[in-house]
Amino acid sequence: PYRSAPPRMLRARAAGWTLLLCALLGRSPGLPTAVNITWSSINFKTILRWQPKPSDYFYTVEILGQTSNTQRKCIQTTETECDVTDVLRNVRETYTAHILSVTSSRMDNFEQPPYAVSENFTPYNQTILGKPEIQNYTQKDSKMSIVFKDPLTPYMFPNGSFQSVRDIFKNDLEYKLYYWKDQSSGKKDATTKSNKFEINVESTKNYCFYIQGIIPSRSKSRTGQESMVLCTKYGTEVFIILAAVAVAVLALAIALPVILCKRKRAKLAREKQPLNGP
Ligand SMILES: *[C@@H]1O[C@H](CO)[C@@H](O)[C@H](O)[C@H]1NC(C)=O
Ligand SMILES: *[C@@H]1O[C@H](CO)[C@@H](O)[C@H](O)[C@H]1NC(C)=O
Ligand SMILES: *[C@@H]1O[C@H](CO)[C@@H](O)[C@H](O)[C@H]1NC(C)=O
Ligand SMILES: *[C@@H]1O[C@H](CO)[C@@H](O)[C@H](O)[C@H]1NC(C)=O
Asked: Which fold is adopted by the domain 31-126?
């Protein structure tokens, strides 16, 4: 009569199959692989992030380019992020990351650890332009001029100075200025390929503005982060003058009756003693 195999034997058989399957796939069983892998990159500083937090294993990141050799970063990390900026130097190249799940004991093993694959990332097309830094702005009569700096990247020239986003994007980089009369909502804009805006404004109004980098040739992530909003203070001078006038008027308003009263009293006093006069 047919009798099923004892449970221990079944378990052994199942384990055997699992091992065989793993050997065929070249994976070690058990370790979770990374999910929700994201690239976040601003001014070419690029961080790879993923989940979940590892409990009793580690992650190692491999960066694969089209022409460069595979490079390892954040070897056996317990973090869920990795700064990969320095291995993405060929900014026009398209990279992929493999996030390996490893245990330390398995490091010398020949087996390929399980891994997750990121989406492709091309720094030149995908890094986000950071905020431009405004150095100087003035409003003189009807001319407003604004001077600002290109954001810097983490990459250096051979002489040790940092490359700016303009050093990399060159003619692909523009800046947009948005400006409006203080207290009003109608925005105007202007565009430049230099580091200066000079625009005509109404000379008796305050203006507020911000600046944003733009890469018009991109189809995605064209606009960068917005600079802080700043406002011209044309009105302060006028305000100070008005305040001074107001103070003068007020002083006069108080002083005048006093003076007049004194004069009147003096006059009355004089009229009361006409005989004593010379
Ligand atoms: C991955 O992201 C989704 C959606 O944001 C979230 O629901 C899920 O919990 C994340 N996975 C892990 C392992 O954190
Ligand atoms: C600021 O702008 C004014 C007028 O445009 C210019 O004379 C001055 O040199 C600028 N200062 C700096 C630090 O750029
Ligand atoms: C470094 O080299 C770059 C490009 O050759 C140049 O623009 C920059 O002014 C140099 N910086 C210094 C501090 O010499
Ligand atoms: C990067 O952007 C340029 C210009 O938009 C485009 O021609 C090129 O195909 C893009 N490269 C990738 C890998 O998406």
From this structure: Immunoglobulin-like (2.60.40)
